[in-house]
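Friendly challenge for the regulars: who can give me the structure tokens for this chain first? No prize, just bragging rights.
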Amino acid sequence: MASNNRPSFLLLTIFLISLLLLNAEAQQQTETRLRDARQCRLERLSASRPSRRIESEGGVTELWNENEDQFQCAGVAITRNIIQPSCLSLPNFAPSPRLVYIQQGRGVLGFSAPGCPETYQSSGQYRGSKGGQQQAGESDRDQHQKIHRLRQGDIVALPAGVSHWCYNDGNEELIALSVTDFNSESNQLAPTLKSFYLAGGQARGSQSQQQQQQQHEQERDDYAVNIIREFDSKIMAEAFDVSEDVMRKMQRADDRGFIVRVEQGSMRMIKPDEEEEYEEKSRRGRGNGLEEAFCNMRMNTQLDNRREADIYSRQAGRLNSVNMHKLPILQYLDMSAEKGNLYPNAILAPHWSMNAHKVVYVTRGEGQVQVVGHNGRALFNERVKEGDLFVVPQFYVATKKAGDNGFEWVEFQTSASPMKSPLVGSRSALRGMPLDVLTNSYRISNKEAQDIKYNREQQHILFPPSGRSSS
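First reply, four minutes later:
Bragging rights claimed.
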């Protein structure tokens, strides 16, 4: 009997071994494809501007071409939202984390994170009702999650999958530059820009009808315009426990776009400057751990505070950085940001990033930027000005020199705790090498090697003009 079972056992063993080998081969092929996709095969870098413009009722969404080699290398997509006063950027969520820099204006930002309690109240709005009748004992208040005040110079963290909205309650345009990181572990979808909108409709443009149709088709690929619209209205009405008429209103066609005008006086929710937090013990018991770990974290902080500069030179400028130690929520995004300010003709020392790609956006002034790759070729050597954007890949060596009117930029980095290694100055690569190594490496004299090591030894990465000639 045992001999009769032996062929079956051998066949099963061979099958299992073959299955394991096929699985290993498939896994290796997947890893190879991912590795190849993340390789930075760059011939050159270039200053980039938005390639698409989506007009909405209350503002404009500008998009950079995510298929550019430099953005594919860094695994990022760039967008810029311009929100008019008294206008609302509609609720949406994304599969990848984002960092947002508030370039201009002020406003309020709201999140709806799953598992987080509604610990804030707004008076004068909420009617706890069903069927149009207010429930007995219900307060004339709206309960919601925390609202955050946004101001010019803020950096804002948007975790993957968390729905959010933004309202411009100021008197000027609110301009927000966003960098989305596709290579985050949070994103298991294709590396392309996606936003899942919970309201809104097709954006309007100034092109011809054919161009508008082509643009709308492309936008539907990039943005799920009001995902609620595609569900069965009866099922959704039952899920929300509302009438089907109400659900049809939520699902109706809407051509206002992604940013909409708000009727005067209709955004009366609590303002962060006046907010009053409260404990609603009757509706929630003890915290579930998520509240302490995530719900109460700060989502934004000021990036351009002179008094909080991490590196400051009276003659050269300053660098302000925000990483996971200053804004703990960034550890969930694995991203960070830096704001640079160079005084006229000052220099940011040649350096490389040891653990992050960098997306650089010029906010003021102009300067000369150079980036050199591993093959010793200059991939970028241009004079950039306000509005230009470019990528500096990990380990590529870059330097900046300000023009006569100074140079400012904001930098988004794909690491929560980035590290940079300067080539020159205190605590730099060459500063840590023996003189004999320098003399033999560059075929220079001992005195020349000393100058290379020690002429900038009192300065760290930010250098004022030396006043030396090029000879």
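The two ends are 94 Å apart (CA to CA). The chain has a mean pLDDT of 81. Your move, everyone else.
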